[in-house]
Amino acid sequence: MAAVATCGTGAGSTGSIAAAASKNNVTSFQRKGPRASGTDSGCSRLVSIAGTRPSVRNGQLLVSTGLPALDQLLGGGLAVGTVLLIEEDKYNIYSSLVFKYFLAEGIINGHTLLVASVKEDPADILQELPAPLLDDNCKKDFDEDVCNDKTPDSNIKMKIAWRYQLLPKMESGPVSSSRFGHYYDASKRMPQELIEASKWHGFFFPEKLSSTNIESCSLTHGYRKLLQFIQNVIYEEGFDGSSPQKKQKNILRIGIQSLGSPLWGDDICCTENCDNSHSLTKFLYVLRGLLRTSLSACIITMPTHLIQNKAVIARVTNLSDTVVGLESFIGSERETNPLYKDYHGLIHIRQIPRLNNLIYDVSDVKDLAFKLKRKLFTIEGSYCIFVLTAAKARELQQGSSHVIL
Amino acid sequence: VTPSEGAGGGTRRELEMESVLALGGLVLLRDSVEWEGRTLLKALIKKSALCGEQVHILGCEVSEDEFREGFDSSINSRLIYHDLFRDPLNWSQTGETLPGGPLGALQAMCRRTHPGPVTIALDSLSWLLLHIPCTSLCQALGALSRQHAHPGGGSPAEPLRVLGLLHEELHGPGPLGALSSLAQTEVTLSGTVGQASAHILSRRPRQRPAHQTQWFSILPDFSLDLQGGPPLESQPHADPHTASVDPTAHVTFNLHLSKKEREAKDSLTLPFQFSSEKQQALLRPGPGQATGRIFYEPDAYDDLDQEDPDDDLDV
Fold first, then answer.
1. Is the CB of residue A188 less than 8 Å away from at least one CB of chain B?
2. Distance CA B130, CA B89 (A)
3. Which residues of chain B form beta strands (DSSP E)?
4. By the CB < 8 Å criterion, does B270 face chain A?
5. Beta-carbon contacts below 8 Å between A and B
6. 221-260 in A: which are within 8 Å (CB) of B?
7. Chain B closest CA to A262's CA: distance in Å?
8. How does pLDDT run across A346-368, given as a tens digit for each residue?
9. Contact A273, A311 (CB under 8 A)
10. Which of A10, A101, A211, B222 is a Cys-bridge partner for A66, taking CB atoms 3.0 to 4.6 Å apart?
């Protein structure tokens, strides 16, 4: 135990440490709250926009991706001005869900949305967004979802850590909408009034296509129109700071679905040596330039399993900032593998950007698997893979006839 | 349709096959040299025609007479045949050929205005892939399936079914993958000696895709006869994963405790494990105050001025 002393002159700084203890606090260290109004503009140098927060590591402004588990893996969230590329799973089930979570998070936070797609109309996509889980009515359902195997809180249970048994439990569930990341219920739809109250722009490529000539369009035609559309929205709504901001600053969330699929007019999924192999990479390059100069964040889903030329995939990865690959177990031999029975697929974090930073912000666990329960999309490290490879090595050594995948 | 082996089983299989067709959208029939798919295509066309739907056929690979052979007159009167086989490049200049070439013909089918359920059969998609770029074909097929969802001026939810025959040996993985991603249902034909089977993969929107394998044969009048299984005993070998893989089987450390070991573990006294009275005595001051206190004694070199350098941390 440290010597008991309180210093007289330093009461101002240490007093704030020891004295103010709120009910839910588990540490004795307190951050100083915001000062009196006179110094507000001075000390808050970062823009305070709804739904954003600065990164604790490098001060970069972050928005939530809609999945708090994914936010944690990406170092707190998606940085404003960057691109999140999702490599679609084979049947495009989970990647479209991640896409919808991103848009739903934008609606909850009041951000402006821009949705570009080829297969479904953007209005239909917005109708299918998951409903958010807000405090009161859902906390108990969430608790029963997660804490099924937690031991009940009783003083006897904690044999070794008995000193902590009277401390309040750390909150692990969804909280009110003022927080950074939200949880969503994939089985319910977002209420209509929230969608109508939000501001969104839609770009449905087949509509723009039909307005021009009938014959097959040139390869960069679809991408060029999309870039022009995005640029117009950014300029007209003032996300790049060009028009004087009379109103509150806001974030533009851009979502582009199935970029690179043949429906956009791009043939990188069809052949290996395509004529315009650079149109997609040019598009990503220009898009990144637009994003860096505006307050926007973009999510792109791309069917990379269809792209025939591996060099294109490597270039696309280099031109995006954060790249996450989803691999679902549906239809593959892993579906019946008992090791993977709790999970629906694997997540591969292929790339994390270094923004104003010298080091990457990677998580320790590299074998990540996800599972989608009704109200929760969790990502966990699947440690069992280590056990499997050790067992497999032993089997092969002993020359067993069983084959374990 | 003639009854198959078990009556109850036959009805169930019928329903499964019906559900394949009822899904709408693009149905991809992938065939190969050993297991050809045109007879199955004609069987499905006959089924649709018997249901009273309008059937449009874009014929590219065989002549119209050869295609209509085997259908009786009632069905033939329901089929509307668009012929691209006889003169695809319009050399005869008679004005009978479809304008715009293959792509124009396909896009003309998008612009149908006749109400009621419609089935469009494309014979074959391979021919179309060889003559028009893959991206244009995909966009045209996308437009067709969107016509299904939002028909121009018609009633909502008119089922439009597109049956496309694809010879999978003619194409590389690129076009096959691109067309598979557009299809709502994929039927791959294969089989064993003397018995054809169809492996059906149906992708309902926003649901997990479902696989099933259906053994069938097609009768001379193009009726579909669904069967239970292959006639010979050619069972697929057991899935290696059904032999349960226990990951804890061969590890080098002990994951299980015997009863005696467990008792010994429980009776072990740990350090800092005090009696319960002492525990309560130590814990009692806790709830009343702050959960922890820090006692700090500044030494001579500490900078204790009011201008805290961290005061702009407003995280």
1. no
2. 14
3. 25-31, 54-59, 79-83, 118-123, 160-167, 185-192, 195-202, 210-218, 224-227
4. yes
5. 184
6. none
7. 5
8. 899 898 888 888 877 777 667 78
9. no
10. A101
* Residue A239 to residue A233: CA distance in whole angstroms: 8
A156 CA: distance to closest CA in chain B (Å): 9
Query: Closest chain A residue to B212 measured between Cα atoms?
Result: A331
Q: How far apart are CA B46 and CA B26, in angstroms?
A: 17
- List Cβ neighbours of B141 (8 Å cut-off, separation of 6 or more): B26, B162, B164, B179, B182
Q: Does domain A52-137+179-400 have CATH number 3.40.50.300?
A: yes
Return the pLDDT at A343: 83
CA dihedral A59, A60, A63, A66 (to 10 degrees): -80
The pLDDT tens digits for B103-161 are 888 877 766 656 778 888 998 899 999 988 898 899 888 888 776 555 444 444 566 88
Answer whether 0.80 is exceeded by the pTM: no
Q: Which residue of B has its CA nearest to A9?
A: B304
A161 touches chain B (CB under 8 A): no
Q: Which residue in the set B135, B207, B211 is minimally distant from A262, CB to CB? A: B135
Secondary structure of residue A156 in the 3-state scheme:
coil
Contacts of B242 in chain A (CB under 8 A): 336
For residue B261, give both structure tokens. 């070991």
Q: What is the ipTM of this complex?
A: 0.73
Task: Give the nearest chain B residue to A187 (CA atoms).
Answer: B206
Distant-in-sequence, close-in-space partners of B223: CB < 8 Å, separation ≥ 6: B1, B2, B43, B46
B314 and A44 within 8 Å at the Cβ level: the answer is yes
Q: Which residues of chain A have pLDDT under 50?
A: 1-23, 35-46, 137-138, 145-155, 172-177, 213-219, 385-391, 399-405
Q: Which domains does chain B have, with CATH numbers?
A: 18-148+158-227 (3.40.50.300)
